[in-house]
Amino acid sequence: MATSTAKTAAKTSAPAAPKGIKAPPSTAYKIIDIPETYKDVIQRYAVPGTFVGASEKESPWVPFGNNAAIRHLAFDVRHNIFSNILWIKSKGVVGTHKHRGTVVMICLEGSVRYLEYDWVATPGAFIYETPGLTHTLVTDDPNGVKLFGWLQGPLEWYDDKGNFVETSDVWWFMNHYESYCREHNIPLNKQLYL
Ligand SMILES: [Fe+2]
After folding, report:
1. What's the CA-to-centroid distance between 17 and ligand 1, angstroms?
2. CB 152: neighbour CB atoms within 10 A?
3. For the chain, how are helix, strand and coil distributed in percent, rounded to 5?
4. What is the structure's pLDDT at 3?
5. Mean pLDDT by 10 residues, the chain (194 residues)
6. 3-class secondary structure per residue, 8-25
7. How far is the CA of 43 from the centre of ligand 1 (A)?
8. What is the CA(130)–ligand 1 centre distance, in A?
9. Which residue of 77, 86, 99, 163 has the fewest C-beta atoms within 10 A of its own C-beta?
10. Which one, of 153, 173, 156, lies nearest residue 95 by Cα?
11. Is the distance from CB of 170 to CB of 81 less than 8 angstroms?
12. In this structure, are strands 68-76 and 81-88 parallel, antiparallel, or unpaired?
C-alpha cells in the first residue's frame, strides 16, 4: 500500500529540473540591482513596457460583427503590430483573410480551427501564422472561442466570392477601439499605445 501511494505521489509531483541548467540563479524574493553597461543610453532612450489589467474599464469588448468582439490590448505603430483577444461568442465564422505579416495566437477558451487545416485548437494551443497564408477561421463550439493574438502586418479580408473587401492593419484596429470609446464616453487607455 505504501509503495502504491509513493508511486502516485511521484506521478503527480513536478519533474526534476534538467541537470546542467543554472537559471534561475536565485530564489531571493526581492528586487536586485544588477550591473548595466549602457545605463545612460537606456535611461535616455528606452521606452517603458505596458500593462493592461483584466477589467473592462481598462479595455472594453468592442463588437466585431454580430457574434464576435475584440478586446484591444496593444498598438505599435512603428511595427504595425496590434494585440488583442478575439471572442467569438458561439458557433460561427470569421471570414476568409490573407496575412501580410506574422501572427502568434493562443487559444484561451473554447475551440477554434481553420477550414483549410486539419487541427483543432483548444485552451493552451499555440498557433503561428506567416505572410501569404489565406484561411477561414471557424468555431464549432457552442460556447465559441477566446483567442489571444499578437499580430504583425495587415490582414486582407475577402467575401464568399473571393472579392477583396478591406485591409485591417494597426490603424484599422486603433480606429476600431477609439471609435467605440468615443461613442460610449470611455476614456482612451494610454497603456494600449506602445
Ligand atoms: Fe489568420
Report:
1. 36
2. 19
3. 20, 35, 45
4. 46
5. 47 74 86 94 95 97 96 98 98 96 98 98 98 98 98 97 98 98 98 98
6. HHHHHCCCCCCCCCCCCC
7. 38
8. 9
9. 163
10. 156
11. yes
12. antiparallel
d(CA 10, ligand 1 centre) in Å: 41
How many residues are there in the chain? 194
Looking at the DSSP bridge assignments, the partners of residue 55 are none
Contact 123, 73 (CB under 8 A): no
Between the alpha carbon of residue 68 and those of residues 4, 48, 62, the distances in Å are: 49, 32, 9
**Residue 86 and residue 83: Cα distance in Å, rounded?**
10
Whose cell is 464616453? That residue is: 185
- Apex 61 CA angle, 57 and 63, nearest 5: 145
Distance CA 2, CA 179 (A): 65
In this structure, the number of other CB atoms found within 10 A of the CB of residue 119 comes to 10
Q: What's the number of CA atoms in the CB half-sphere (13 Å) around residue 162?
A: 1
pLDDT at residue 15 in the model: 77
Contacts of 86 (CB under 8 A, 6+ apart): 64, 68, 70, 94, 145, 146, 147, 149
- Find the 191 Cα to ligand 1 centroid distance in Å: 26
Surface-to-core class of residue 89, CB atoms within 10 Å of its CB (0-12 exposed, 13-18 middle, 19+ buried): middle
